[in-house]
Amino acid sequence: MRNLASKEQELIRLASQLDTEALAEIYDRYSPALYGYAMRLLNDTALAEDCVAETFARFLKSLQKGQGPRDHLRAYLYRVTHNWIVDLYRDSKPTSELDETLQSEEFTEEEVTKRISQKQIREAIHNLTPNQQKVISLKYLEDWSNEEIAQVLHKSVGAVKSIQHHALVSLQKLLMNGTDEELNQP
Amino acid sequence: MKNLTNLESVIRERLGQIKEVPPRNPKVAARARARFLAQAAAASEARHQRGWNFIFRKQQFAMNVVVTLLVIAGLFVGGGTTVKAAQDDLPNEPLYAIKTLSEDVSLQFQKDPEAKVERLMELAQTRVQEMDRLIASGQTPPDQVRVRLEQHLEQTLAVSSNMDDAALDRALPQLRDQLQQRDRDMQRLQAHAAQNAQPILNRTRTMLQTQLAVVGNGLQDHEMFRSAVRNGLVYEQTQTPPALGSSTPSTPPEEPSGQATPPPGNPGNGNGLGPTTDPAEPAVEVTATPNNNGTGTNPGNNSGGNNKDKDKDPKDKDPKDKDPKDKDPKK
Hints:
Chain A is mostly helical. Chain A has helices at 2-16, 20-42, 45-64, 73-91, 96-104, 109-126, 130-141, 146-153, 157-176. In chain A, helix 2 (20-42) packs antiparallel against helix 3, helix 4 (73-91) packs across helix 8 and helix 8 (146-153) crosses helix 9 (157-176). Chain A is globular. Chain B is an all-alpha fold. At the A-B interface, helix 2, helix 3, helix 4, helix 6 and helix 7 of A face helix 1 and helix 2 of B.
């Protein structure tokens, strides 16, 4: 674990000098996971690719300005990725996810139900506050620990737990607008 | 508490529905990687150039005189000898860093595009000669040499792509000849290199052949050449290039993580040019344009007035995070 941390520190140091080999290694190490993260929240391959590209472009730009992360590189990159997705939803909420695909192709009833449910989940997540979104996405979609999430949020583990609690309650309410009866069960 | 645990398990189950994502298109991923690496190389070079600009432009006249005199004195006393001696060094030798630094400096002062292309091709030849000497002495060339060769050749293509048609007409045939010569060099090296040197030679040949295809297309259509260079080249190894006199094919090199390997049944067009010559995936390329040039669908391309958060370091406080529920309970 310590080796991983020191390796990451070394990568950050080299990246701050705009070392191209280090930057390539960082890209190879993190871009697949960031793409998966963006896909889970956006369900759009083109947007997910845009998101990854823009995350690394912002990272590079920060390095050029002498800024960028001093530690916790993975947390930094996920934070940039998530901020991009939040901005996307704020500026132009994608609405085409379901309607276009269902119109253009034929689906079984089961598939349609599944897609509607997935759309509801994504919309519910996007209706949370940005920090709640990060906690829910990182904890339940990426399986991060509270400690790791705390690094992304620059908050304490206790604060993360508190945000998680509020987020779960909010999600319940948001999903209740759909067809969920199961959430009411004791 | 029980309710909360139950709620968590229900939410977890619901979220599980969006956890699985389809695999990423490897060709699109490889192009995205190539674009990022091109951006990184450009940023690196720009910083390097700014450093020299700082030294040579920002200083006052008096300081320039002093520095110039010191450099000249250094050259007479021994600096010139050192740089000259360094030219024969290989990557594992002490003066190699001075050699590459002197090459970089010589490029910075080369402003004429055609002369710069010529200089870059000389440097490419130097890298191949280094590989040759290392292999002849029983060593495996480090990847550093291949990466630098790739940088020289990509910079050559980039400089050429900015030339006007007349200059490009002169440059492209020379480029083709040079690339063909380097490819023959590689083929010759493959024939007598040890097995552990084969992967790096294979990768180098793949790169050379991709670039040759781009230059070949450019001879027919300058715009196609410019567009291909602008979009970034992807070097996909679909098969091991044969070595001269080698009867058994070499093992293909392992692709680096994130580097594309074409999916089965979709071998691509073999020149790594991407969507303009690959009709198999037009929709993806049309919609996915993460090139940050302000023309794509990318909402965060730093070109719009709404993107006020785009350039800031995420360590900055997120103005949206003002939900009172998010407060740290300890505070």
